[in-house]
Amino acid sequence: MKNEKHCSGCGVLLQDENVMQEGYTTSLDNDLCQRCFRIKNYGDYQVVTRSNEEYIEILKSVGEKKDLVLYVVDLLNIEKDVTDIRKYIQNKMILVLNKKDVLPKSVKEEKIIQYFENMEMPFEEIIVISTEKNQNIDYLLKRIKFYQTTNLVYVVGHTNAGKSTLINKLLKNYSDNTSELTISPLPSTTLNTVKMEINDYLTLIDTPGLVDIGSIVNFVDKDMFKKLSPKKEIKPKTYQLKKGQAIVIEDLVRIDYREGEKNSFTLYISNDLRVKRFLNHHHEDLKDLSKRTYEMKFNEDLVINGLGFIKIVNQGTIDVYINKDVETFTRKSLI
Ligand SMILES: Nc1nc2c(ncn2[C@@H]2O[C@H](COP(=O)(O)OP(=O)(O)O)[C@@H](O)[C@H]2O)c(=O)[nH]1
Ligand SMILES: [Mg+2]
């Protein structure tokens, strides 16, 4: 008979036949696959690549149900268009903005919510939380109870937004259920849907998440990956630039201020990243990377997928040098 047991950490179908294949475990009596076991016990990450087509199928199947959906977004890596998810899912949905703890404390929750509400978001409600710091989790649970249509609630979003961490937190806070989902700093930790029962009235369903193909994390080595993932509250760095001056972040990005009045650039990126300012354009560092030019309007952010964002106050022209496959875009300033 074919095994039907799934890993309780990542949802993959367990098998004990091929070490090289996903879902391998030494014995089908185990609850975890070997990969989850190693992540949990040794912090030993193994990268698995997942295609977004597979996830989109999962989203579409969630869209066929009537259950409430939590759409989890990482505040430092907000997608270019958070309403895109509505293409696949029409269900009642709460937009959960996670990792509030990495933004400076001076950034108020109300201000973030206002920012989104000004764009007329198609969500029942927008809630800012920090799973790590246990911020607003009680309130989130209250609102889940208020909006839920059945006892099932799906948790969707991009990989690394903190979906599994959030479900673990809800389990820990409100249930006797001692199982845990596998979490890790790397994308594609959760491989399939996993049901987690909080109580008789609420079961959360974890999903793998969309992979950000345009994220800078796909193009850096392990050490740089660690450096650019903020673990603590970001201390913003502000630089006053005149035209002809430039900012360089590690060997990742170069930003040349080409045209405009004296301007203020504030970086919201991991504190561990080294930033240099060049006072004239004679330095050629990183100019071999691919170039894109933006006409910044008053009070906009330049967003670099996976790295963070740069608030630029005045209008002006900038040249951005970066790996050609990393997504960048501008938006009205978040902060
Ligand atoms: N700073 C911070 N990190 C978080 C928070 N929630 C999750 N993380 C981290 O984000 C990474 C991805 O979490 P995970 O739950 O695996 O994301 P998933 O792919 O959406 O399931 C892990 O390193 C978590 O520790 C949070 O509220 N604050
Ligand atoms: Mg996960």
H-E string? HHEEHEHEHEEHEEEEEEEEEE
State the secondary-structure class.
alpha+beta
Q: If strands are numbered along the chain, what order do they take across the biggest sheet?
A: 3-2-1-4-6-5
Number of domains: 3
Percent of residues in helical segments? Answer: 10-25%
Determine the CATH superfamily of the largest domain: P-loop containing nucleotide triphosphate hydrolases
Q: Using only CA atoms, what is the Rg?
A: 21 Å
The CATH topology of the largest domain comes to Rossmann fold
Strand percentage lies at 25-35%
Written overview of the protein:
- The chain has six helices and 16 strands.
- The protein has 335 residues and is an alpha+beta fold.
- The chain has three domains: 1-46, no CATH class; 47-206, P-loop containing nucleotide triphosphate hydrolases (Rossmann fold), CATH 3.40.50.300; 228-332, no CATH class.
- The strands form three sheets. It has a six-stranded mixed β-sheet, with helices on both faces. Strands 7-10-14-13-16 form a five-stranded antiparallel β-sheet, with no helix packed on it. It has a five-stranded antiparallel β-sheet with strand order 11-8-9-15-12, with no helix packed on it.
- α3 (109-117) links the parallel β2 (93-98) and β3 (125-128).
- The structure holds guanosine-5'-diphosphate and magnesium ion.
- Magnesium ion binds at residues 163-164, 189-190, 206.
